[in-house]
Design goal:
elongated; respiratory chain; mitochondrion; mainly alpha; membrane
Length: about 230
């Protein structure tokens, strides 16, 4: 759907229809879910989510890549709703909102680059990201938000998802969730590393290493503020 739809439609799908629609379906079917069904549903969703992550690693189309990665992140909301208590529902909604904003920002960035170079291939898109320092900084921050780095809203949902697995006492599920979260973030950071390596090795792109320092400073400022406020 994302590959054929326009970018504004993809932004709406990633931010509202897909994520919040899933939450609505789970709430409607909440009474019919038994303990056995919960384990079966989580196993099935994890299986397809891992397939989405593996497929996104080999996807050269930037829009398809983001669509596959966005589909794989649905499992976090499912864990929060099925394994957590009533207070986890609000966190699940915040996770949907945070990932919708991050994926929507990434879709907008891909949309803008596509209108200028008429291509969604990573081999061409990554070279466009180095034309200015502002664009380099913006792309790096968007990649970090999609991968769930603090201070994004997704990080709270991911931490509570691990906590819900610990409370449930299911060691296998805890290991799967931990590996899934690590793998999902690793896919995004791998693409970001490819972007930076492509920029630094290309002679016709003005790559500024100061962007790495600026991104690091901004990132640790946000993390420090969060620790100061909540801890």
């Amino acid at each position: 759907v994302h590959a054929e739809a326009s970018s504004p439609v993809s932004i709406i799908l990633s931010g509202y229809i897909m994520k919040l629609g899933l939450v609505g379906i789970l709430r409607i079917c909440w009474g019919s879910l038994s303990v056995w069904n919960v384990g079966f549903i989580l196993t099935l969703i994890f299986f397809f989510s891992l397939l989405y992550i593996i497929s996104s690693h080999y996807e050269s189309d930037s829009k398809r890549w983001l669509a596959l990665l966005s589909l794989s992140h649905i499992v976090i909301s499912v864990i929060l709703l099925l394994l957590g208590d009533y207070s986890f529902e609000l966190v699940g909604l915040f996770y949907c909102l945070g990932h919708g904003l991050a994926a929507g920002g990434m879709f907008m960035l891909i949309w803008w680059v596509n209108t200028l170079i008429n291509s969604r291939s990573w081999s061409l898109v990554v070279k466009f990201y180095g034309f200015s320092v502002i664009l380099q900084l913006l792309s790096a921050l968007v990649f970090m938000m999609v991968s769930g780095f603090p201070p994004s809203l997704q990080i709270f949902g991911e931490i509570l998802a691990v906590d819900a697995c610990i409370i449930s006492g299911n060691l296998v599920l805890l290991i799967l969730v931990s590996l899934y979260l690590f793998g999902a973030s690793l896919v995004v950071l791998t693409v970001l590393g490819s972007v930076l390596c492509s920029l630094s090795s290309s002679s016709n792109v003005n790559f500024s290493y100061t962007v790495v320092v600026v991104v690091g400073v901004v990132y640790y400022i946000f993390v420090g503020l969060l620790l100061f406020i909540f801890v």
